[in-house]
Amino acid sequence: MKNLLIITAYAIIFIGCKPHQAKNASSETPDITISGDTVLIPGRSTVGQKIKQLTLRSESVLIPYSTTGTVRAIPECIADIAVPFEGRIVESFVKAGQTVKAGSPLFSIHSPAFFETVKSFLQAKEEKQVAEMNLHRQQDLVDHGVGVQKELDEARLNFEISKGQVENLIATLSIYNVNAEKTEVGKPMVVTSPIKGEVVKNSIRVGQYLTANSDPMVCIADLKKVWVIAQVKESKMGLIQHLDEVTITIDAYPKQSFPGFVSYIGKILDEQTRSLEVIIECDNAEQYLKPGTFTMVSFINSHQEGIVLPANALVQEEDHTYVYKRTSEGRFVKTSVSVTSAGNGNVIILDGIAAGETVISEGCIYLH
Predict the structure, then answer these.
(1) CA-CA distances (angstroms) from residue 295 to 139, 262, 275, 289, 298?
(2) I need a labelling partner for 49 at 20 to 30 A (CA). Which of 32, 211, 345, 366 fits?
(3) How many angstroms separate the CA atoms of 139 and 144, rounded?
(4) What is the arrangement of strands in the sheet containing 58-62, beginning at the earlier edge strand?
(5) Are 358 and 329 in contact (CB under 8 A)?
(6) 191: closest CA among 178, 208, 174, 175?
(7) Interval 131-151: pLDDT, tens
(8) Beta bridge partners of 71
């Protein structure tokens, strides 16, 4: 009986101590071991079963890129109208906001210099007619054997000279959109619009005397299409391609965007700002985009080869971003990377790791 009690006591002690020993054994085997930037994670540990790993690969990615820009009128769609001759404004035919066609009268000016030009043209025109008649007469005499070749040659030379004078004066008047054939001595010069568009500036004052140094009196612009001049940094030039789609936003209408496309990519880099001018053409039927307005330019089709990674894989510490890169089975090293947003909860790796390497893509929270 005594021996039975002793055996029973030993059994109770053994059963009571066994779980305690197992618990101690378990607590002596940690889930992870951290040494500096290196983390050891046993595959069968609790943390090892919670984390997920991703082997990185290079793929064509859409890289969002935004920069600043300025709205500009398309050069061939804007015209500053100055006076071609000194004189006094006699009459105004337009007002601000008025739509005009190419050739529409804007204002008239009484100019002595213009009168002299018209007078010279009409005189040269008469001299040309006389020279032409003389040339025909001399040619007829020679054809009938009674003329002198020398006189025919002189008549031909005089005709060519008078003809050149008329052509030069016609060219001079056409520069100012003046139809030489409809001019008359003594009438004011009518200044017309060289393009179609809207009168966006009007400084005409009847009676004002203008000189060659006077500022333009009228500005005509067709702003149904405009340019946005974007400044693209040197490091981002590779993201921009001709005809890429672009979205424009301005502070005046923050909830509205304006589509456009890359019309021209500059060829010369600004050495001071290290940026390149990119011209974007935009429809502007409602004329919300005013020349001179500052804009935000977002390039949509900025494709290039890159590595996409879930943002959950990143570890942010102060001003640095890290990922845990696997160097061997169960061994991971905290590695600094630079990234940019790719949208939809992803980032694009710019530097720090390469395609083919494996990182922890989910579960980094368990490593702290």
Answers:
(1) 71, 15, 16, 9, 10
(2) 345
(3) 9
(4) 58-62, 303-310, 346-351, 338-343
(5) no
(6) 178
(7) 999 999 999 998 888 888 999
(8) 228
* Secondary structure, 3-state, the chain: CHHHHHHHHHHHHHHHHHHHHHHHHHHCCCCCEEECCEEECCCCCHHHHHCEEEECCEEEEECCEEEEEEEEECHHHEEEECCCCCEEEEEECCCCCCEECCCCEEEEEECHHHHHHHHHHHHHHHHHHHHHHHHHHHHHHHHCCCCCHHHHHHHHHHHHHHHHHHHHHHHHHHHCCCCHHHCCCCCCEEEECCCCEEEEEECCCCCCEECCCCCCCEEEECCCEEEEEEEEEHHHHHHCCCCCEEEEECCCCCCCCEEEEEEEECCCCECCCCEEEEEEEEECCCCCCCCCCEEEEEECCCEEEEEEEEHHHCEEECCEEEEEEEEECCEEEEEECEEEEEECCEEEEEECCCCCCEEEEECHHHHC
pLDDT at 10 over 80: no
Which of these ranges, 7-21, 39-53, 218-232, has the smallest mean pLDDT?
A: 7-21
Give the HSE-up count for residue 76: Cα atoms under 13 Å, Cβ half-sphere.
0
Q: Which residues contact 43 (CB under 8 A, 6 or more apart)?
A: 329, 330
Place of tokens 């005409």: 204
pLDDT at 19 over 60: no
Q: Which two structure tokens, joined as six digits, stand for 17?
A: 């101590």
Could you tell me the two tokens for 59?
A: 């793929």
Which residue type does 318 have? Answer: E
Enter the pTM of the model: 0.64
296 or 212, which is more confident:
296
pLDDT of 173 strictly over 60: yes
Q: In DSSP terms, which residues pair with 202 in a beta bridge? A: 218
Q: Are strands 320-328 and 331-336 parallel, antiparallel or unpaired?
A: antiparallel
